[in-house]
Amino acid sequence: MKADSLPPTSPPPLPAAKPRRTFVGLLASNIEIRMIFVILIVMLVLSLVSPYFFTVKNLLNMADQSVIVGMISLGETLVILIGGIDLSVGSLVGMTGIVLGLAMRHMGLAESFVLCLGAGALAGLTNGLVITYGRIAPFVVTLGMMSIGASLAYVLSGANSISDLPPGLGTLSADTVIGIPLDFWCLLIAYAVCYWFLTSTKGGRTLYALGSNREAARVVGLRVAAWSVIAYVVSGLMSSVAAIFLASRILSIDPIGGQGLELDAIAAVVIGGASLFGGRGSIIGTLLGVFVMVFIRNGLNLLNVSPYWQGTAIGSIIIIAVLAERLLSGTRRRA
Amino acid sequence: MTSLELHDIWKAFGATQALAGAAIALKPGEVHALVGANGAGKSTLSRIISGQVQPDRGSIILDNKQIRFSNSRDAILHGICMVTQETSLAPDLTVLENIMLPQLALPGRLRWRVLRTQGESLIGELGREAGLDLDTPVGDLSIGQRQLVEILKALALDSQFIIFDEPTAPLSPHEGERLFAIMRRLAARGRGLVFVSHRLEEIFTITDRVTVLREGKLVEGNLPIGSLTQGELVRLMVGRELQDVYGRRTARPPVPDSNPVVLRVRNLACPPMVRDVSFEVRAGEVLGLAGLVGAGRSETVETIFGLRRATAGLVELNGQPFAAQSSREAIRAGIGLIPEDRRGQAIVPDFSVRENLLLAHLGAHAGVGLNYSARTAAIRELLTVLDLPERRLLDANMLTFSGGMQQKVILARGLLLSPRLLLLDEPTRGVDIATRSSIYALLRRVAAEGMACVVVSSDFEEIIGISDRITVLSDGVTVTTLPSHLMDVEKLAMFAAPRTSAEKTHTVLTDLVTRQGGMAYWIVVDGGRVFCFDRVGTEVAADPGFATGGFPLLSETSIASALATPSTDFVSDHDGTRWTLLVPILGQRGHSFGTVGLTLARPPDGVDAAALSAAIVGALSDPLDLAMTETGQFA
């Protein structure tokens, strides 16, 4: 048998991707646009079933709620982009909040903020160094840090909440600019900065490259270790930012104030289209994911769903959302 | 009498046509070689035979009945099994549990006592020398022993056809010989074996018939191995069209000595793979690093590039000592690397082609911004040179590209940094022939512009075709460096020393010198030169005028007349001080393995030349029979 007798074998040319300008095409092309569409539907449904939903008061209330989850989701996005995970963010909100409360008894507001942010960054740095240089799975290290943070919060506070807070603290969430609370402005600014960082700076693109193919990033000479650590530092830092806004909003600091927030943050990032394997996701997606989470919680409350059932509802929605996203985007997901 | 035939098999992975009309026919009791260059489709065809991959079209005929395998379990139930390169064993389970693992899928209760008896008898079939204990966790075994466990697994399934995919790559010489003995025994008991390899030496040692694939097509099927020489087999594997691919086949003008030495490597060591490597490259020169898989070539370039730490030796870059602690430092010093594993070490799958091209720039210059637009002109120029369509530049996913297209992008990434030294590790692996030709042209072009290039390749024909000089490594040690126009595939194969036969020859040479004195050597005489692969002995008076790795003209040696005079007896060279016996060595199937020589500094009185020749030939003709050299018949 000779090869010469066989028919010629040029592989068929790949069909060129034709840009579709239809509405469906737009929906299929971009996860952020899909999510805005979903959010609009959720808002429509909620405003139909509850007249209270679309009131200024409720909208401001939801904006307020999105700040806390939003801040820690920002840090969590960076960590998930490099293929890691940070479980400690919730308990660090509690721990750094207590640091803030204790500090404010002895020093001014600004110094206390610095101390609080320092505590969060230090915890994140510890996470990052142990994960990167100790080569231990991020899940394990941050699980340990989660326990340490919760424990330190109790130790520092004596298991009591702190409510002797200076009145100036409340202005962060009480003041408004153009009718929108100051803390929500802070959230939008933080996301805008992060968007710029992730799309237009070398550091941001390095994080994506790291998560997509760590070895390739190392071979072409990127600072793999440094940027991995930085992602965890930012994540810890954002926990303490969230702690400051939480204290400002409820004017009381509870050692378990951040309990369970890590799950909300991870859910928001995943709903926002990020891959837990790293390398894929967007900060806009995360922000929209945060809004989806807040809307749904708010809607469940407005509909008087029992708090016992809310967990089941939210859990199901997360799984359905990610499943739907996988089916919709089809082959473009990681092979 | 069972038989297994595959006809006209086609298979595409995405845009890559892996197989385009491949075929193979297996018979019981035979070892069948499946050979081809990298990317010829050997592995894909083996995975189709063993049911792991389903063909797009083509037929599989077992005992004259057409069948289909929808998974590897189907194939196993039909008595076909594959022993893989990366062993698929559970390291925490014991040998017995691993061997009997497939039984877990069968209905009924497991009876460990019966299984143990079976396991014992299987080990008996392989021979006890393997030293396997049924209760050892597989994780504690050597790689060679793990492979035996895989073979036992195949036997436990009562497989009629067993496919060995590059089984010798991770093995020590002794383990390799033991594996061959086992393969012979299995064939003798009526099993049909497929041996996938690109080591010619091994193919000629162990197989009965050969099927050659090239670019996914069948070139020749079922040729008896005895009807071929190594050169003919290489030509079948590589194909005539490649002769022109490298550009001119005649000797290039040598790179002038006035060109500065860009990289000098002295006695570099990075255990366990790199032990003692030395070479140098000048500006404008392409140096090939040749050798077999496991010779330490990739590890050498990775050490120079700072991805591994050298434990000894000296690297000089542009005359200055240079020891890269990281790839970052190497890039800053003007070194580029095209890594071996494209998918694992080079491509960022979630990035567009443009970002992949510019990946190294994320770490290469100061400042915060990306500044991609500043490089548009450079990118456009490179795309023209590489013949990459510009419209695909922003294409989202590089993984849908063909291997050749991917490699062009990675190559362009390396060139965008304008390195002065470019290290290329298997630059044409899995790359189609047209792209290869443009990669070679590009290499010659950048060399002509003054870049120094180091190319690692397992493809001997390729490395001879594109290099100015070739440095041969074997087991982590530099064997020789010589101009590529003096090289051919056969000589390169012997320099690269298929470990099995080199070790054996070395033993024979040592034994000769111990008993007779003088110097003993293994050479090939070709084109008026002596190429020396190994030399043993310390008696300076008996120096034949060449050492291991040397390639002098016949007239430059001290035994010119002996080399010029075919004789079965000792020949005295012209000044009467050296007496030389030369014994041509033929393989089992009549192909040449060069010449073993003995030079004495005294007249060979009382030495029976005929008996000595016979003993040497006897010791080297059957590479599997170790016993003869150990009984010492050179007395």
What does this protein structure show overall?
The complex is a heterodimer of chains A (335) and B (635). In chain A, helix 3 (56-81) packs parallel to helix 8 (182-200), helix 3 (56-81) runs antiparallel to helix 11 (224-250) and helix 3 packs across helix 13. Chain A is an all-alpha fold and 335 residues long. Chain A is built from 14 helices and 2 strands; from the N terminus they run αααααααββααααααα. Chain A is globular, with a radius of gyration of 22 Å. Chain A has a single domain (52-321), classed as ABC transporter involved in vitamin B12 uptake, BtuC (Orthogonal Bundle). Chain A has a two-stranded antiparallel sheet. Residues 1-20 and 331-335 of chain A have low confidence and may be disordered. With 635 residues, chain B is of the alpha/beta class. Chain B has 3 domains: 4-239, P-loop containing nucleotide triphosphate hydrolases (Rossmann fold, 3-Layer(aba) Sandwich), CATH 3.40.50; 269-487, Rossmann fold (3-Layer(aba) Sandwich), CATH 3.40.50.300; 498-630, 2-Layer Sandwich (Beta-Lactamase), CATH 3.30.450. In chain B, the strands form 5 sheets. Chain B has a 6-stranded mixed beta sheet, sandwiched between helices. Chain B has a 6-stranded mixed beta sheet with strand order 16-17-18-13-19-20, sandwiched between helices. In chain B, helix 4 (112-126) packs across helix 5 (143-156) and helix 15 crosses helix 16. Chain B starts with a strand and ends in a 5-residue tail after the last helix. Classes of the chains: A mainly alpha (335), B alpha/beta (635). The A-B interface holds A 1-3, 6, 9, 11, 14, 17, 200-203, 205-206, 208-209, 211-213, 215-223, 279-280, 332, 334-335 and B 8, 12, 15-17, 20-21, 23, 214, 216-219, 221, 305, 307, 326-328, 330-332, 337, 339, 344-351, 355, 359-364, 367-370, 395-397, 399-400, 402, 413.
